[in-house]
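Field: COMPLEX_INPUT
Field: COMPONENT_COUNT = two
Field: RESIDUE_TOTAL = 808
Field: MODE = joint
Values follow.
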Amino acid sequence: MNDLTVSLHYNTATAPPDAQSSDVALPLRVLDADGGLVVEGTASRSTPAQLDVSRAGEPLFVRLTWPSGKTETKRVEGPQLVFDDASISRNEWAAWAVPRLKTSGLAAESPISEKAGIGRFDRAWLRLWQLKEQKWSAATFAPTQRYRNEAAVQLDFTLDQTGWCLQLGGATVPWVIISLPPGGRCRVLITPNGSNDPRKEPLKVVVTGFRSDAETLLEFLSRDSLRAARSVANYAPLATKMLEGKFDDPVAAVAGAYFLLRTGEWKGIPPWWFENLDLRFPWIADGSIIRCAVLTRAGLPDDDSRKKALSRLTESLKRGVPIFAEGLSLLHESASALRPEGKSERASVFEMIDRLAASSLWAGAAFAFSGDDPGSPNPKRHRGMPTQHHRTDRKTVDSASATEPESSSIIMLRDIGR
Amino acid sequence: LTTLYNVLPAAGPGTHVLAIGVGKYPHLLGGEAGKLTAKPLGLKQLSSPPLSAAKLLEWCLAPTLVPSAVGYRNPSCPLASVDGLISSATPVSIATPTGTQVPQAATLENIDIAFSAWLNRLKGHDDNIGLFYFCGHGIMVADHYLLAEDFGHSSNKPWDRAFDLSNTIRAVEREVKGAVFFLIDACRMIALDVALTFGGNPSALKAADLKKEVTRQSLSVIKATGEGKLAFARENQVSRFTDALLAALSGRCGVKAAGATTWDVDGETLASAVRRLLDNGNKAAKQSQVSAQEISGSSIALIKSASIPSAAVEIDLTPEEMRNRAKFLLTSAKGQEYPHDGANGLFRAVVPRGFYTVEAKPKGGEFAALKFEDQEIVPPVFDLPMRTSA
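Field: COMPLEX_OUTPUT
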């Protein structure tokens, strides 16, 4: 056999049906009997992988890797191999999230155990936060669509061009805040967390801004799966195209920039691409974070360049919090490098970054953290219902703060989809 | 003595190791009489770090003493230098090609000297690999701070005998052009209040020259635990993280690139294997431990081995009475067979990486035979729980 064609017959999984980029590529590796790599590639729904296996002996196996890190492996028994999602999910509306979940009651073949049922979290609550004039305010909870089955609830929002966060909590759910992608449609799926990871939260929140390729790339990065991320990014080449297309989709450009910074490939990118991503989209904190990291990594030859890097660091906090977890890592890296010795007039900036870093939680590609509200990150975890006495007296010289929540901003999980 | 080995390659790159283990802290709880610092932060003496650092040093040096021994191997970037600093209540000695040596104490001054020498060697070739290992007390304040033996020597300035790992990394990645691996076996408890009330702001081992651009090709930082968490070790034993690290480095992980002849362990592969091994150890541990990593840049192999990496396999069949009446067979895609009699308990074996068929057959028709084909056994650990009804 000389050529192997691997096709993905994924009708619903990997992307919401109406995603901007629903034709996401997934990494494939052809392996020999020892598990050694023969050849690698990517396949998407529209473009099968054409792989040269002429130099390999038999048997051969193909491993497909999902963004969750879960893998599916098949033996090669002819020149055509197909992966399909015929039984991936019990509901079409939730299928997009299954590849981002390592274990899930959403999978069609899994019987729903009591532990995997969303019903036991009915008394958990959700609250939506919006950044207005550098202050976080509780926003009216008005999803455009709501779905529910035994294993999950799902909400669709349309979000303005400003910072947005979703907060969850409850008697058995420590409060967690998840950054949402602004400037368009956003879908959130909430399901009991079946992971064995000791860091896991009771509820797993999966977020999509309907940018499947960008989000797939970031899911791999969030797991430090650079080999898989490189396979996906080399398909097109995706990351550079995403960054180049910042005026069409700045959130996808952020994902592309994060990949380029992680792999060291940012040095080949014109610096004004990063500058435009920062300056032309003042509603995205990640743009300033990325620019600050690029400036700092490129070297700060004089006081002016150092001041510029510091100003971008400060600006990023005025814009809220990073959309993606990768942003927190870069924010922390830049703060470490730029932190002055002794007292500084920007002490509140560094303190806020320290608090964000100390409060960060594991949630895959999305940035998640703990705190009373998005302006008050705090590693101490609360449980129970939200209280009405929020800290509005905090010093907020350089960062966004919070105002009192409105009662219409809170919804109970039991009220979703019923 | 801090330098235990120093054989620079005649040409080409080399690997430079600096390993630090701090168990003796005279100024912390249980330390030397009359030397206790005013605020010891609840930190005590540690028995594991000297053993852990010694084990890592011995692993690095083993092939220099016995060529066939398990230890550091990388034909593309051979071992060039090994520096070690160990602070221990009882002296620790290390066998080296020039005889047994007792590493110097890991005071901040000695760490400074050893770090400078290590960094200078690392800068000697664009493709050099650096391995920095630390085992001892760590505190996560604004950045990750690691405590030298003499931490707390002055109650007024306790932090001047600690160092800032985060900014040390920022400095190193601007000084070297090759790959750097930071393997950090220390706690990362959050102590923001400590920072605010205690004036804690230790210096890096080298200040980052921000005028310089980041030049390293690859950076792998693998930490024993996540932010705000503790790392664990049993008394007088190698720590869980270092144990997992050394297992992973000793043939329990590796990937072979297309057309390559060696199985390589880069930062991504190592971090993933360490995490999996720790996760496996969590089953029997009182406290769970999850490592954390930051992997960036190109994929550069720390280890290259001609041998296929192996995995610890554990295959079970429930209910137990059926396992007792089962014969297990693990057959590789190349035809190698590994039989096991269920009457002897769980099926545990160490087998080379690859694809296998797993079978459980009844000795006398007590249950329907089970067969799982094309199971990919990926190191370091492979579990397959099977279930049958009689």
